[in-house]
Amino acid sequence: MMFSTALVVLLHVVVGSEAMHAKSSTSPTLSYWHLNLPTTPIPDTLRELISPLSSEKTSELLDAIREGKKVSMAEPDPTPKLGRKGGPDSVASPAWPFYGTAADDKIIANPSVSDMFFHEKDLHTGTKLTLYSKLLKRSSPDSRSSPDSRVFFLPRRLAEAIPFSSDKLSVALEMLDISQGSDTALAMKQTLKGCEGPAISAESRYCATSLESMIDYTTSTLGTSSLNVLETNVPCKLKSQKYTITGISFQSKSGSKAVVCHSETYAYAVYYCHESQHITTARVSLKGEDGSSGEGVAVCHTDTSGWNPQHLAFKVLNLKPGGAPVCHFVPNGAVLWLPAH
């Protein structure tokens, strides 16, 4: 496919101008949420990623793509910024090492991630846990930055017009005006590799390139449109500190089914979602040594028999596959979907 270089359609310019106005029912993504999940509040983590593009603007961009014009998803600089806020400090959710069968060397070497694991017997009021604060705090958009410096979900029609596969990455890079070999391109390649990798045991997984597709995957997997969406958000000042569980406002029954979606690094918002069948979940109140307080979403995996014996959690908790449950907090940028009942 050949693309004209005479005109570059800068999506961030369009998004930036429309983001100055409140998101309304003209947003196809927001309309889709309300239509399919009428009783489910949108968590802030996802609300902030909804593109303000209207149906009309989405159609204009689709027409531009069909005409062979490039569509830039980031700021017009040599190294487009990535992440939820587009900044270098964004924390990528380690989706596969958290839930997968293997222990990733980079994750094993990262003490901030190892701090996230704890025993199920510790999930009660009064427990003190040392946690890496950055993995708990929701990354809100910086009010000092312009809207175009952030990454948004694309409306589904637009997302589906852009190839999302390793064998067509070069086509996508050219469409998005991203240089081969750039940090952005390498990050996209890594995300695609993970999305196309083998599934974890018998549990389904899916990489959502739009919020609409995330909704479809979740409702079909959980078999209902009556859902709760939970997120972790604990404001903090310290990099790492002790947190005390001060209350448990919700706890699911053992063996509950859920879907967890993790934010991935890409030119636009992409989430790796996977089914979890053998878990218990809890929403707990946390208070840090610095006086900060908020809510954390804890997940305990009750069946680890299929996990790799070298999984990081076993090393941290001195457990073996099939032994006591492995618990951790859902990190910032991720959301947990549960049937409302």
UniProtKB/TrEMBL annotation:
Keywords: Signal. Residues 70-90 are annotated as: Disordered. Residues 1-19 form the signal peptide. Residues 117-340 form the BURP domain. InterPro entries: BURP, BURP_dom. It comes from the Eukaryota. PANTHER family: BURP DOMAIN PROTEIN RD22, BURP DOMAIN PROTEIN USPL1-LIKE. This is BURP domain-containing protein. It comes from Picea sitchensis. The lineage of its organism: Eukaryota, Viridiplantae, Streptophyta, Embryophyta, Tracheophyta.
